[in-house]
Every structure is written in C-alpha cells, then in structure tokens.
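User: I've been trying to design a sequence by hand for this structure and keep getting stuck. Would you show me what you'd pick, starting by listing the structure so we're on the same page?

Assistant: Good idea, let's start from the same input. This is the structure you sent:
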C-alpha cells in the first residue's frame, strides 16, 4: 500500500465534496432524513442510544483497526446517528484496506445483520431441487424473521418465482409463490414488503390490473401504506408519468427504508429527469449502504456518489474566509472537514497546526489524509512549527495519530525519521506495527538495508495474524 504526496492529493481531490455547507443541500438532507415514519426514524436515530453506539464503535474502530468488522460497525453507527456522508467514507476506505471476501463478510454481518437463526434456516434451501418445495421455507423465513436480510431475500425469490404465468411456463411453483405472497400480505396488511413483492411479480408478468387492485385496496385501508405506494410508483413508471412516480416512490421509501427499488428509481429520476444530482445523492447513499457494489444504469453507485460530491467542491473553497475555517474542522461531515484541511494547506499558515493534529484521529481516512497533507505543506515552509509537535503526535495515546505522524515525519525528515519508524515496529497496537511496515518502511525506506532488516525481524517475530495478513495484502508488487 504505497502512499505519496502526489497520491494523497489525487485521492483527496477526488473524494472531497463541499456543498453540504450550502443551505440548499443541508435542507435536502435534513428533509430526507427527517422522521415521517417509524422506519425512517429508526434509521436515523439521534437518541442517546445512537450516540452511545457511535462512541463504542469509534473506540472499537481504533482498538481493532485491522478488523474489517470494526470499520463496518463504525460505518453503520455513523449512519444510524444521521451522518451518511461519514458512513460512506468509512465504508469506501474499508473496501480499499481489506480483501473483497473479508469486506463482504463484515458488511453482511455489521450492516445488513445477516447470520443467526435466519441464516441457518435459509441454508435448507441449498438441498432443495423442486422449486415448489422451497416455497414453504421462503414463506417461513418472512414469517419468523421479517426484519432479517434473509427474509428480504426470501421475498425477492418468491417474487421472481411468481413472475411467470401459473397457467403457462410458471406452473405450480409460480402459483405456489403467488399464493404465498398473497397470504403473507393478508396476514400482515400493514407490512409494505409482501405487498411490494406481490405487486412486482404481477407487474413483471403484465397483470397491471391485478397489481393495481391490490394496491388500491391497501390504500383504501391505509392511505400511507408504503407497499401500495411502491406498486403505484412502479405503475406510474411504466406509464411514463414521472411526476406521479416520484411522489409515489418517495412515499414508499419514506415508509420502508429497505425498499431499494424505490431508492434506485428515485435516484434515476433526480439524475436523469430532473438533472438534480443533489436530489439523487441521499438515495444513492442508501443504495451504497445496502450494497457497496451496486450499480445504477451500469455505473457503480460509489463512483456516482464521488462524482456528485466532487462537483460541489469549489463552492466552499471560494466561499470560506480564513477566519471561518477552523469551525469547518469540527462539522459533522467528513467532506467539509477534509476540504477545510486542504484550504488551510493552500493558505500555508501555522495557526491551524493543532486543529490539524486533532484531525489525524478523525473517523474518516479522507480527513486524516487531508490533515497529514496540510501539515506536510506547512512543514515544508515552516518545518520547526510542525516538528515542535513531533513527540506529541508520535507518542499520542491514539493509534491513528501515531500512524499518520509516522507517515508525516518520514516524508518531512527522511532518514532522520527512520529510527522512529523502526521503533514503531514494537508498538503495542497491531495497526501501528502493520502501518509502520506497509505505509512507511515499504514506501519511504524500501531500499535502505537497515529498514529491510528491521522489517524482516519484525515479521519473523510478529504474533498477530492480522498484522501479517495486512502486510501481505498491501506489500509492494514487483
């Protein structure tokens, strides 16, 4: 995992977004994350419990930084605390730090809540060859574990099975699947998920009248039925009525934060029909949280989010006076904190050194990198002002500060910083030991015999498998 100042600049510039500071964007995010329904209120809880969860996740993130679960738990805690931008950046960084298999497993458990009894029940499906025999198991998953990802997958599978004509190619499995969805909707008429799955199946096979009838009956009983709104929105999309579709789908999403169909279609409407990327952003962030590998219109959601954030960057740069910069370091938005650090680097003043030092311990890698870069820029022109904090940062109680300080002073002081890098190979925190090799020795001192010998000794005596795994994953390629 090589790092350089040029790479840092590219990464920082490509990630940072600004416009959350603008009133319009703030209004949009606050509106979207307001609690018009119990589902949305739960998703963005800002209660004392959510804050306690966030603080615990932050501590675990720093104590177990080489564990992908710690990263994804922090991302989810940030999301639940109403900080979706920070959640995005933590998840994005974790994808680059860990193997694909480890990242996917951590995401499934920490974010989606997969595993446990529902997963054990779902395993029974692997041995079933006859689709009709799978239907009772799928139905049971939704009944017994309605809030689990396994239940959501079960409903999606039933919906796909019911797409085919029971009197034609679908046969008994399609008939059984449709009956199961109708029964689930009957048992839980206020639950939006079974009705949405049933409506999707009917619409897919062209039975618009039946889908509409189910939706309108549900709306007659409850005008805020999110499942019915999902179906009506899908019908409006088929009819090309995008204004109605947006209203229906927004109602569906407001009532069911797991309705990723509605989130995706709303993102497309805002992007493609309304030319309003800011309007699409909240929905794309939600899609990314559910699936960091998701695509929209054959483009990765991750890429689109970064493009939207990047497009807003210059507005805050132009609009922020130096006197107002320090307060931006403490905003609840990683993009703004990072951009403030970059702005301070451009100004080249020493008055923000301590503020930047605090950002070395930020939750988000984009901010830590930006602060490191800014301190490097200041240190090049006024080195003693930065070196005065060297012992403070290298000896910090926080491992993330020690990690970034190792990188900073290796870059500023060259061979003079090598003894501290070698000393870090004995740090009590595994992440500091791993980064001392992967980020410092393997980059700044790769051709120095003393560094290579120290690296070899450290790896030979290392007892933590996570350190060895991390170094192997990020060691320089020939």
């Amino acid at each position: 995992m090589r790092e350089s100042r040029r790479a840092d600049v590219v990464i920082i510039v490509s990630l940072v977004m600004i416009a959350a500071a603008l009133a319009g964007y703030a209004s949009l995010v606050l509106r979207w994350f307001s609690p018009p329904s119990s589902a949305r209120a739960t998703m963005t809880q800002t209660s004392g419990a959510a804050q306690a969860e966030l603080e615990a996740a932050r501590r675990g993130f720093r104590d177990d930084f080489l564990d992908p679960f710690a990263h994804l738990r922090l991302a989810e805690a940030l999301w639940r605390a109403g900080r979706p931008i920070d959640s995005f950046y933590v998840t994005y960084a974790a994808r680059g730090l860990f193997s694909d298999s480890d990242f996917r497993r951590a995401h499934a458990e920490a974010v989606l809540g997969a595993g446990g009894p529902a997963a054990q029940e779902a395993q029974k499906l692997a041995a079933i060859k006859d689709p009709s025999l799978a239907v009772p198991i799928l139905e049971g998953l939704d009944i017994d574990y309605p809030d689990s990802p396994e239940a959501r997958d079960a409903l999606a599978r039933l919906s796909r099975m019911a797409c085919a004509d029971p009197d034609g190619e679908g046969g008994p499995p399609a008939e059984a699947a449709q009956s199961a969805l109708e029964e689930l909707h009957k048992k839980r008429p206020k639950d939006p998920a079974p009705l949405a799955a049933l409506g999707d199946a009917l619409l897919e096979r062209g039975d618009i009248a039946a889908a509409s009838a189910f939706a309108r009956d549900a709306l007659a009983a409850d005008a805020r039925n999110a499942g019915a709104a999902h179906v009506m929105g899908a019908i409006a999309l088929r009819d090309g009525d995008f204004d109605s579709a947006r209203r229906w789908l927004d109602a569906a999403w407001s009532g069911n934060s797991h309705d990723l169909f509605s989130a995706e279609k709303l993102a497309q409407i805002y992007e493609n029909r309304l030319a309003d990327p800011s309007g699409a952003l909240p929905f794309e962030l939600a899609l990314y949280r559910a699936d960091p590998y998701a695509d929209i219109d054959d483009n990765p959601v991750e890429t689109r989010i970064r493009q939207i954030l990047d497009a807003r960057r210059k507005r805050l740069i132009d609009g922020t006076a130096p006197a107002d910069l320090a307060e931006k370091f403490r905003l609840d938005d990683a993009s703004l904190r990072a951009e403030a650090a970059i702005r301070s680097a451009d100004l080249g003043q020493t008055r923000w050194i301590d503020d930047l030092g605090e950002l070395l311990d930020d939750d988000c890698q984009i901010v830590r990198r930006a602060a490191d870069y800014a301190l490097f820029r200041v240190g090049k022109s006024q080195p003693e002002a930065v070196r005065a904090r060297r012992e403070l940062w290298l000896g910090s109680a926080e491992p993330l500060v020690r990690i970034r300080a190792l990188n900073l002073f290796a870059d500023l002081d060259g061979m003079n910083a090598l003894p501290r890098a070698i000393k870090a190979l004995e740090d009590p925190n595994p992440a500091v030991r791993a980064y001392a090799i992967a980020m410092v020795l393997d980059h700044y001192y790769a051709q120095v015999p003393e560094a290579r010998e120290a690296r070899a000794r450290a790896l030979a005596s290392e007892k933590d498998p996570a350190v060895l795994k991390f170094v192997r994953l990020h060691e320089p390629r020939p």
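That's my pick for every position. To get oriented when you compare it with your attempt: The two ends are 13 Å apart (CA to CA). The first helix runs from residue 5 to 15.
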